[in-house]
What we know:
Shape: globular
CATH architecture of the largest domain: 3-Layer(aba) Sandwich
CATH superfamily of the largest domain: Aldehyde Dehydrogenase, Chain A, domain 1
Bound molecules: nicotinamide-adenine-dinucleotide
Distance between the termini: 77 Å
Number of domains: 2
Largest sheet: 7 strands, mixed
Oligomer: single chain
Amino acid sequence: xxxxxxxxxxxxxxxxxxxxxxxxxxxxxxxxxxxxxxxxxxxxxxxxxxxxxxxxxxxxxxxxxxxxxxxxxxxxxxxxxxxxxxxxxxxxxxxxxxxxxxxxxxxxxxxxxxxxxxxxxxxxxxxxxxxxxxxxxxxxxxxxxxxxxxxxxxxxxxxxxxxxxxxxxxxxxxxxxxxxxxxxxxxxxxxxxxxxxxxxxxxxxxxxxxxxxxxxxxxxxxxxxxxxxxxxxxxxxxxxxxxxxxxxxxxxxxxxxxxxxxxxxxxxxxxxxxxxxxxxxxxxxxxxxxxxxxxxxxxxxxxxxxxxxxxxxxxxxxxxxxxxxxxxxxxxxxxxxxxxxxxxxxxxxxxxxxxxxxxxxxxxxxxxxxxxxxxxxxxxxxxxxxxxxxxxxxxxxxxxxxxxxxxxxxxxxxxxxxxxxxxxxxxxxxxxxxxxxxxxxxxxxxxxxxxxxxxxxxxxxxxxxxxxxxxxxxxxxxxxxxxxxxxxxxxxxxxxxxxxxx
Length: 502
Ligand code: NAD
């Protein structure tokens, strides 16, 4: 069959064709057209990529950390220089709006900025005279070959967050980009090369489960960073651990916005709709559920939100919509099934996205916004992450009840509270069992120089995704004790456990 714009892998510093004979379609979600065929790597191709990365690693590890940081700085400048092109690729393969693509690139660059502080973050600790003539110090070394497996919904931000520090602290990095948005990852491969990263230090293998399984099992891969859905995150964590790897695996989210009766409801409605429906709700930190505390709060909010949601504009990025299509026809069908399920389970359908008109008729994967009210725990639309524009309103009588609901949920990625009551906010931030917490902010995603990770089913393993923790995750710490003795010093056998270095 003739291939449409066949893509490559990036192995050993070069674009190489896939040899597995397996390909997957990459779509423009706004038109429904196939825009490329991405090769799906075989086990052997992944092994070859790991081999090239392993070969390149020692020289990169031994390069001065300041020199590596300089290369990261060049890469950062290239990202800025090529912003327009990067945004165009992201919009084309993911369907995002330009504004949203620019936002994710900016946040991704924050991770690259932080990676430039590798010289500082790799510093160890030093003690002199811990015993007679003995100094002891800790030193951080890169791990070797490490792999990052990325989701579709942030074609650049998440890969940059997963990999920039890994490169800067001296690892050879293999990115398994999402097979649904591989073009951005391939594009930045050229930028890494232009910045001066040696061949083999930056690799992109495109693929699916077969490639991932080889990365998980291969003895030369030291660490796995995964971002994606919860069932796959759990699988990656369990399998990686079985093979003795260091693993952090971030999963999905079902994030709540709690609204206290004293909050400014006009502000709340705008915050909920922006954070709930932005990017067609395809964000792990999207707000899924608005929890209104008090009947009156719920009634007033439902009315304001309903009107605003009905006015949202959905369409392709060149029409400057509020949000674009979802990623695939399959995703769209799954979301339609969830809406039908919500109706069946008795939630009140305030806005039905199945009936609303989309600005431009096309074969794209568009879905207008859907809003359910009187949603209850136990309903599928309450329990499951819906990666598309279907949002909920839940009502509770008290803040305690809201906290309890949230803490009982399987996922714990992000949460936020809107209130003018400092004590309520303090109680909330103390008692809530969620990794990223906001007070009067719509999406409590930390900036790139802070750590990022959820709790419970939103994160497996103890690493974080952004932030300084990346430097810890991608290095191993050695403790070194040194003693230099005068040749004249008395020297005798000693079988006692070393407790007194005299
Ligand atoms: P996904 O789990 O389907 O895929 C993620 C990656 O895993 C892809 O590279 C894919 O090729 C690979 N993969 C998929 N199935 C696999 C399998 N069975 N075995 C091995 N590898 C497999 O996720 P997605 O649909 O690309 O992304 C959306 C999900 O990611 C949502 O659940 C979202 O909440 C989550 N996400 C979480 C965060 C976070 O920081 N917590 C950030 C972004 C996205």
